[in-house]
Write a structure and sequence with these properties.
elongated; 22-stranded antiparallel beta barrel; 43 strands; 3 domains; 991 residues
Length: 991
């Protein structure tokens, strides 16, 4: 559509949605609780419409309606929903009773019925009051807030995992980060541009960066724990998270939170404090007009320091050649000259080290290589043997103990940073609504911008490794990954009525981008010419979604009948941008790029091992990786919601969707709820769903360093339409498909003021997309490729500066099943003491069903175990807790508030391919405690702790510690390894 046509269309849509009301009635009133206290920020909505407002700080509201009589639906978290019939314009004094904070709240998600509450929903929905949690709980970022409040949600900070150190993958119901859809104010949120390819939960998936949204901008979060692809489209297999933005006006809210980890294992397990964190947030809203219009501004700045839980490196650090280097360096000699053909300096400083080298020695004499393995090792090397006494290799002689002493170093000087990465971030959001008439017509918009600078480290490059160029770093080095993450979003829309139909037309844009600067590192193959800082390039993802939603509620059909239908058009773009040449290139000794041509070789170390190319820890993206890919999709849906009687309701939805890159899909959902009595409801649902493979999974390609049992391997990720994929028989990607069933009940015990819900579910997913293991060329006993296909594969790997290849593939089918339980209780003691107790639990299990969906080529080659290796199975089935229980108590007494929460994290397992090293980590309980004091009407002080008792996961067994690098698993985390976190918060609320 041309720009001119688009402009005409938007103007036409605007005019169609601006009916002129000839008669208007203004309703005014005031809301109080039973004790006469005013109730600010309560929702007041005309039943069956989107026309509504909120009470001001004095509990008062004003609302214009087209005609009387009308029913007003009044709701807010912590109070019972009340319906008031208004027949005239007399001032209303309305008393609202306290009640369930979640089940009676009018919901946006899961139903397009404007009167639907969570307790009447045929599918399970959690409502999370973010304002209350950010006032009392220790957590300030969205992932951690939800991780500790919603048992079905899991997210943890990752470590030693490249970009995933800076974006926490999240899961709902134990499924993948890309199988939950995120909405903001009911509109689809864009995903991150990062795809997880390192050794963490969610490997091979693309999630949504929830931490890009400041908590200060959020009013509440609605978590739909049920498949909803038939309503919202791709990704909504596990459920939907809808973030409802803040609408508060005439109130300036400022909060400053600071804290640190005070743990027995802080500072490389010596104790003290580390990981200091400071968050400053603010929000303010202005009323617009007299009909409930507003504009709110919210944002925060976050400073998070790193922490390290590695005690010390226990493996080899130096060899005898490093001793020669130390002596040469002390004498002012050039270390680079030690690698050339002239052995004069090597012999000179070797003899100073007491090695007794013959003045006529050759390199063969020094390293013990002569047409194969000698029976006697050279001066600088030693032989290794197998159990039969056969020689298996030649390796440099370890000289770590004496070298540490000679250099005045300790083993801790070679530690990695295992734990939390360093982050600096700023986020800003705005939310806007402006009614245009008295009939519910309004324009609305929300927008967000954010920037995050992350700093993390990889594996320490030790001086005895070929990937360490010791003339530049004589003691090795710890390479750093510096990421700059930018995020932008903008939604604009107009809603109103055409006749009796509600119409909502909107456009939502979002973009996420990563740029990588790799510091304190080296391109070992470049020798002395290498820089120490590299621009490694980056990637971005952009999404634009246009929606037209039309609905009508027939209050006289059955006991109420809602009809909704609409259409969606979405455009996506994914780009990879190359870095500088030295960040991705492997060089020869003469400084020219190595391309694998016969007769050429990369720069070698003294012992003949090739030095890997590219910036160490994170090789950059090259011109061959660069791409700019687009796709589009169109969808149409119908959503029916019928209340057949006072006791029985049913919803039905169906959605057709067509993608430009893989075709069409049709899905449906059927859900019902039966009201047995005023206090008991039964509900059930069945739905089909799908998830289109992301543009990232279809197109991402790169080379990265993966450590397998502590050994670095350069792994190339190739797309599914690549030549490497065809040689190995990797099928092209297609969509995941699913079907799920859930059933449960909700009940209330009014006399005890208790509500609880129980829901069971089964989710079957076919053709689930995973990230494969590493495929290396198959070779014979002489190390040569066994056939032409493997020879060609080896050539492709050389061109990619890699030794193995991985892919994204529809490798398996899975089944997830579980039970979710939510119990809430409220009690009042006297006039000013209130106790809220919430118990929530999830018991879930995900398993692979059937065999591996591989090609005949893979089966014939015996490569199914590489296509879907054991560690991938564990990541899917056992890397997040199957059981999670949350018990929260919040006591308010006058000016004081006490918050106590215990979270039970169930067992997880170490993700490893070595069966003998598989380990199960036992369940743990983490306790949060805080005390708040309202010093004045505007000032609240809060102090408290996350993980008060300083609980850690079980320590890793010796085989999984990687020589002391990981005393706690980095692959399967229950709740992090930071230990106790103490915090203090000052909150200002100026009205």
């Amino acid at each position: 559509m041309t720009q001119k046509k688009l402009t005409k269309f938007l103007i036409f849509s605007l005019l169609m949605l601006l009916p002129i009301s000839l008669v208007a009635q203004n309703i005014k009133g005031k809301l109080t609780d039973a004790s006469g206290e005013v109730l600010p920020f309560m929702n007041v909505v005309v039943q069956g419409t989107t026309n509504g407002t909120t009470t001001n700080e004095n509990g008062e509201f004003s609302l214009t309606v087209k005609e009387l009589p009308v029913n007003l639906v009044i709701s807010s978290i912590g109070f019972k929903t009340k319906v008031v019939n208004v027949k005239n314009t007399s001032f209303l004094n309305i008393i609202i009773e306290e009640g369930s904070e979640s089940l009676e709240e009018i919901i946006v998600i899961g139903s397009r019925n404007p009167n639907r509450t969570a307790i009447d929903s045929p599918v399970p929905i959690d409502i999370v009051d973010i304002k209350e949690l950010t006032a009392m709980a220790p957590q300030v970022n969205l992932n951690q807030i939800l991780n500790f409040v919603a048992p079905s949600f899991t997210s943890n900070t990752q470590t030693i995992s490249d970009g995933t150190d800076h974006v926490d993958p999240a899961s709902l119901r134990g499924l993948g980060p890309d199988q939950v859809l995120v909405l903001i104010n009911g509109k689809r949120r864009h995903t991150s541009s990062l795809i997880n390819v390192n050794g963490t939960f969610g490997r091979g998936s693309v999630g949504t960066d929830l931490n890009a949204i400041p908590a200060a901008a959020i009013k509440r979060i609605e978590v739909l724990r049920d498949g909803a692809a038939a309503q919202y489209g791709s990704d909504a297999i596990a459920g939907v998270i809808n973030i409802v933005l803040n609408e508060t006006v005439n109130e300036l809210a400022i909060a400053v939170t600071t804290g640190a980890h005070f743990s027995k294992n802080s500072n490389e397990q010596t104790g003290g404090s580390d990981g200091e964190t400071t968050n400053i947030s603010a929000s303010y809203g202005l009323p617009l007009g007299d009909n409930g219009g507003f504009i709110t501004f919210s944002g925060d700045f976050d400073v998070r320091e790193d922490y390290n839980r590695m005690k010390e490196w226990e493996g080899s650090i130096f060899n005898t050649f490093n001793t020669i280097e130390r002596l040469a360096n002390a004498d002012g000699a050039s270390l680079n000259d030690l690698f050339d053909a002239d052995l004069t300096d090597v012999i000179k400083y070797g003899n100073q080290a007491g090695l007794g080298i013959n003045s006529n020695a050759t390199k063969t004499d020094l390293i013990g290589i002569n047409d194969g393995l000698n029976s006697v090792a050279g001066v600088l090397t030693q032989l290794t043997f197998n159990s039969s006494g056969d020689i298996t290799g030649v390796s440099p002689i370890d000289n770590t103990t004496s070298e540490l002493a000679a250099r005045g170093l300790n083993r801790t000087d070679f530690n990695m940073r295992v734990g939390q990465s360093k982050v600096r971030s700023g986020r800003f959001f705005a939310n806007f609504k402006l009614p245009l008439d008295d009939n519910g017509t309004e324009i609305y918009s929300f927008a967000g911008v954010g920037s995050r600078a992350g700093n993390s480290a990889g594996f320490y490059r030790l001086p005895n490794q070929s990937r360490t160029f010791t003339p530049a770093y004589i003691d090795g080095f710890l390479p750093e990954i510096n990421s700059t993450i930018s995020d932008q979003s903008l939604a604009v829309g107009i809603k109103g009525k055409i006749g009796d139909w509600n119409v909502d037309f909107s456009n939502t844009y979002g973009k996420n981008a990563f740029d990588f600067i790799i510091g304190n590192t080296y391109n070992a193959s470049q020798g002395v010419a290498s820089p120490t800082t590299f621009d490694a390039g980056g990637f971005s993802f952009t999404q634009n979604t246009t929606n037209l939603d039309i609905s009508k509620f027939y209050k006289d059909t059955f006991d109420g009948f809602g009809v909704a239908f609409g259409a969606e058009h979405r455009i996506e773009n994914y780009q990879i941008v190359a870095g500088e040449e030295s960040s991705y290139t492997q060089y020869q000794a003469d400084g020219s790029p190595f391309n694998g041509v016969a007769g050429t070789s990369p720069l070698n170390d003294f012992f003949g091992s090739g030095r890997p190319g590219g910036s160490q820890v994170f090789p950059g993206f090259g011109p061959k990786n660069e791409l700019d890919r687009d796709r589009s999709s169109v969808a149409a849906y119908v959503d029916l919601d019928a209340k057949f009687s006072e006791t029985f309701s049913t919803t039905f939805a169906t959605r057709f969707e067509n993608y430009s890159d893989f075709g069409s899909t049709l899905n449906f959902k059927l859900a019902s709820i039966y009201k047995v009595s005023d206090n008991l409801r039964l509900r059930a649902s069945f739905n089909t769903g799908f998830r289109a493979p992301s543009l990232h999974q279809l197109n991402y390609n790169s080379t990265s360093t993966i450590f397998q049992d502590g050994i670095p391997v350069e792994v190339g990720t190739f797309s599914n339409d690549s030549k490497a994929a065809k040689l190995l028989g990797i099928p092209q990607l297609k969509e995941e498909t699913s079907n799920s069933f859930s059933a449960g009940f909700t009940t209330k015990l009014p006399d005890a003021n208790i509500t609880f819900t129980v829901d069971g579910y089964i989710v079957n997913i076919d053709d689930r997309v995973v990230y494969t293991g590493q495929f290396a060329p198959q070779v014979d006993g002489n190390g040569d490729p066994i056939d032409a296909a493997n020879t060609e594969l080896q050539g492709l790997l050389v061109q990619a500066n890699a030794t193995a290849a991985s892919f994204f593939a529809n490798a398996i089918d899975t089944q997830s099943k579980g039970i979710d339980l939510v119990i809430t209780h409220k009690a009042t003691f006297g006039n000013n003491m209130r106790l809220n107790t919430d118990l929530a639990a999830t018991f879930s299990k995900t398993e692979q069903v059937g065999g591996i969906n591989s090609s005949q080529i893979l089966k014939n080659a015996g490569l199914e175990g590489t296509y879907f290796p054991e560690d991938s199975r564990i990541f899917l089935e056992e890397a997040v807790p199957r059981t999670k229980i949350n018990l929260t108590n919040s006591l308010t007494a006058g000016r004081f508030n006490v918050f106590l929460r215990n979270v039970y994290f169930g067992e997880v397992s170490e993700a490893t391919n070595t069966i003998a090293n598989q380990q199960t980590f036992s369940s743990k309980i983490v306790t949060d405690l805080s005390l708040g004091f309202k010093a004045t009407q505007d000032l609240t002080l809060t102090v408290g702790a996350n993980n008060l008792l300083d609980v850690y996961p079980d320590r890793a067994i010796e085989a999984n510690r990687s020589g002391g690098r990981f005393d706690w698993s980095r692959r399967s985390q229950q709740f992090g390894i930071g230990g106790r976190f103490l915090f203090a918060r000052v909150s200002f609320n100026l009205k």
